[in-house]
């Protein structure tokens, strides 16, 4: 559901080619400006779209705020209502954007390599780090299991599975209804088991598949002024409804990780709730995106580091939880809740910055050239370049002769 770009520019209607170059991590490595003489230069790398970087940053701030509210929400109905509202759309929004930037995944060697280095490796690292933190800081021994995602690492596990199935969703005729049907069935099937957090993977699947099928013009619709104005009463009504629903609804539905039977209701309630939540989440996601600025702002560049903020902010929150910092009475008052919210937003912002990315890139986005075979076409190009260099060293005039013969004026 992330290197800093060298340049950012607002684009009210992003082009298809431009957005295909932005992957989930939000980075397109720069191309060298200098090319060997006599070889055509590649087209310049497309500029990043500020809208999507802004959306990713704001979404990750909301994720951190929701995690910070979790240990405090029991004492305040208003905070619990805000928590319910937030959990209705913040991860769906993040997943829709992840799906949108996964459209170019075709299971080619380069894409599979990026999937391993950008998803599998950080999953293994942080799936190990969180249990160790609980063991040595929390004082409660926790087993390390790569099949049982711990805390927020479920998203990487889900993203790995979703991206591997991307070619299938491009093939079927009605991908979104099919994915929604799978999610509805998963919500009524308690026997799926917890390995790889499959219930959550399947129940969040429709949002990813929807992102795969979105086009730039769909995002342009929600970025109109009329949509921004309409989002105000929608969010206001949603907050009031969440306040009403707090004592009446099991918040476990919002996590999408349990079946209806596990939540203590008949099986048929699961598909109904799944369908209702899908509609509510999409509406609120559209409202959220309508408020995302399309121009470059002070936080636009931070959108390239959202994976870093996502994976590391949980370490800070878990440390605070294990140390009992959330038990302080002052934090359970309105001013304390506001202070925790601001602190969480500031912390995740700092964790998305370039210095943090430089330090943690070795485990979040490692290159790992040593682990992969070189592509045959790349090897052939390398051999051809070496032959040209040898020929130039032996006969410096070869290059000039080849250039003159290729000139139509000669």
UniProtKB/TrEMBL annotation:
Transmembrane feature ranges: 81-100, 112-130, 150-169, 226-246, 266-289, 296-318, 338-360
Record keywords: Membrane, Transmembrane, Transmembrane helix
InterPro entries membership: Acyl_transf_3_dom, Nod_factor_acetyltransferase
Signal peptide as annotated in the record: none
The organism's place on the tree of life at top rank: Bacteria
Domain (Acyltransferase): residue spans on this chain: 50-353
Keyword Transmembrane helix (UniProt): yes
Residue spans of biased composition, Basic and acidic residues class: 20-37
Annotated stretches, region: Disordered: 1-45, 380-410
Ranges of compositional bias, category Low complexity: 1-10
Transmembrane listed as a keyword: yes
PANTHER family cross-referenced by the UniProt entry: MEMBRANE-BOUND ACYLTRANSFERASE YKRP-RELATED (PTHR37312:SF1)
Protein name: Membrane protein
């Amino acid at each position: 559901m992330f290197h800093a770009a060298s340049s950012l520019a607002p684009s009210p209607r992003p082009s298809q080619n431009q957005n295909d170059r932005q992957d989930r991590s939000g980075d397109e490595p720069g191309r060298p400006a200098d090319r060997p003489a006599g070889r055509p230069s590649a087209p310049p790398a497309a500029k990043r779209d500020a809208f999507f970087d802004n959306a990713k940053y704001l979404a990750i701030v909301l994720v951190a705020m929701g995690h910070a509210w979790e240990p405090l929400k029991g004492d305040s109905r208003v905070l619990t209502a805000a928590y319910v509202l937030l959990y209705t759309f913040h991860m769906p929004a993040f997943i829709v954007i992840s799906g949108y930037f996964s459209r170019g995944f075709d299971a080619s060697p380069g894409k599979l390599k990026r999937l391993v280095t950008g998803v599998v490796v950080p999953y293994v690292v942080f799936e190990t780090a969180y249990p160790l933190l609980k063991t040595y800081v929390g004082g409660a021994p926790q087993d390390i299991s790569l099949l049982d995602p711990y805390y927020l690492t479920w998203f990487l596990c889900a993203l790995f599975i979703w991206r591997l199935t991307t070619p299938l969703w491009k093939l079927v005729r009605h991908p979104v209804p099919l994915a929604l049907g799978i999610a509805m069935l998963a919500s009524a099937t308690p026997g799926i088991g917890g390995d790889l957090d499959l219930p959550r993977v399947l129940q969040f699947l429709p949002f990813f598949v929807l992102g795969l099928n979105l086009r730039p013009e769909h995002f342009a619709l929600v970025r109109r002024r009329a949509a921004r104005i309409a989002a105000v009463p929608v969010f206001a009504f949603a907050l009031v409804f969440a306040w009403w629903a707090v004592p009446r609804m099991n918040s476990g539905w919002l996590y999408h990780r349990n079946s209806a039977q596990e939540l203590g209701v008949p099986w048929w309630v699961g598909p109904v709730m799944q369908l209702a939540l899908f509609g509510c989440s999409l509406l609120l996601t559209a409202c959220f995106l309508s408020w995302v600025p399309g121009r470059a702002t002070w936080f636009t560049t931070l959108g390239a580091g959202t994976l870093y903020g996502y994976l590391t902010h949980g370490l800070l929150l878990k440390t605070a939880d294990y140390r009992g910092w959330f038990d302080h009475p002052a934090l359970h008052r309105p001013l304390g809740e506001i202070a925790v919210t601001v602190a969480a937003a500031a912390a995740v912002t700092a964790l998305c910055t370039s210095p943090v990315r430089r330090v943690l890139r070795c485990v979040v986005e490692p290159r790992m050239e040593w682990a992969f075979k070189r592509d045959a076409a790349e090897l052939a190009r390398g051999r051809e370049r070496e032959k040209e260099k040898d020929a130039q060293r032996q006969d410096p005039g070869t290059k000039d002769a080849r250039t003159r013969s290729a000139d139509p004026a000669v």
